[in-house]
Amino acid sequence: MDAVNWQMLTLVMMLSSIGWVMVTSSSMTFAEATYGDGWFFAKRYALYWCLGILCAVLVAAVPTVIWEKYGSLFLIGALLMLVLVLIPGIGRKVNGSQRWLQLGPLGLQASEMVKFCAIVFYASFLARRGQETLVDWHGVFKPLLVLGVMIFLLLLEPDFGASVVLAATVMAMLFVAGVRLWQFIILFVAALGGLMLIATLSPYRMQRLITFLDPWADQFNSGYQLTQSLIGFGRGQWTGLGLGNSVQKLFYLPEAHTDFIFAIIAEEFGLVGVAAIMGIFIALVICILNVSQRAMAGGKVFASFATFGVAVMFAGQAFINVGVASGLLPTKGLTMPFISYGGSSLLVSCVLMALVMRIDWELRLASMNPSTKMSGEQKSAAGVRSGRRQTAAGRTKSYASEHGKPQPADADKPSAATALQGAA
After folding, report:
1. Which domain holds residue 343?
2. Which stretches does the entry tag as region Disordered (predicted)?
3. pTM, entire model
4. Which residues contact 338 (CB under 8 A, 6 or more apart)?
5. Is residue 1 part of a domain?
6. How many domains does the chain have?
7. Residue 22: how many CB atoms within 10 A of its CB?
8. Between 301-325 and 261-297, two packed helices, what is the crossing angle to 10 degrees?
9. Average pLDDT, consecutive stretches of 10 residues, N- to C-terminus, the chain (424 residues)
10. What distance in Å separates the CA atoms of residue 60 and residue 72, rounded to the nearest whole number?
């Protein structure tokens, strides 16, 4: 048996290679003018990529049970980083946002590290206490309270984009864990309303929303970045201008090598190149969802929720990045995993994929080695989540009677395993 899932590894290597090439292409003019070295960002991307591989090897060497056991420590670590980054002298401010922790020559974005910590914590929480979310609002409130604290700290930086991605990932994990559909709808509407309220109370965020609706109305001021991005998409047409031939990267499009790198891809490789990269992303997300489904079927509840969270986070972040660059979503600073220049994003993306590949290896090992089959406890956990809602409701009734709580009304929402199988 191979120790590596070569299909997933190939997809990640393809995205990373494309990312290095496009970061090099989109940044050379800016890097030469700013740092006197046209390869400045290309070298730093390669450095962070090597560090990402090193971190990935370390993460892949740790058994899944260790990540599950110490999930609460990751929550503490996430909150600690979010607090430290706000302290003057420890956190570093760039472009008006205090998001970076300086570790020697390297600057790490706290919100990126929090994504990994949050996925591990919530997967651990749902594996151990997921049944509480099926009982009443009290069971749902606990994980939402933690989410609220993290989002509050993120907004203090401020980092609105990371808040949206984190909220979407956690909400999706709660949904497949068994939160009722009507509860989920209420939570979704409340979260959407809260984000809209935050946007309206912040003048610059409100300006971004107005600009998004009609960027051409103020194309030389608030709508400048988006209009330049759209011009890049228009220049690319079907097959693009060719690698290195982008015009927008010549100081027309700000952040051409980071948040708006997809516009440069569209300009240089056209619709064909855009479709190819999106196809690779979709294939990677499907592979991760397949691992999640196999984990749930094998009784590995933590592994299933963790990989599902990674899939949602990758898909959500890529969707928002493409949507912003193409004018489908309001402007928000989010990198595209493995593609955009961003050391912290690349490091965390490598670590998340290492966790997925460790889980995949353990599942394949369990399927070949009878001695690693499910224990009684794992079978029980799988039974709770692999049945239909009727089975989950029966478990909920037992939990409610033990705690003296009234039994909630049944719902027709499928279980976590059914939802994951459908997604995969």
Report:
1. 6-369+376-423
2. 371-424
3. 0.84
4. 12, 15, 16, 18, 19, 346, 349
5. no
6. 1
7. 27
8. 160
9. 82 97 95 94 95 95 94 92 88 78 79 93 89 69 89 88 91 86 81 77 74 84 91 95 94 92 97 97 97 94 97 96 92 89 94 97 84 46 43 45 45 46 46
10. 20
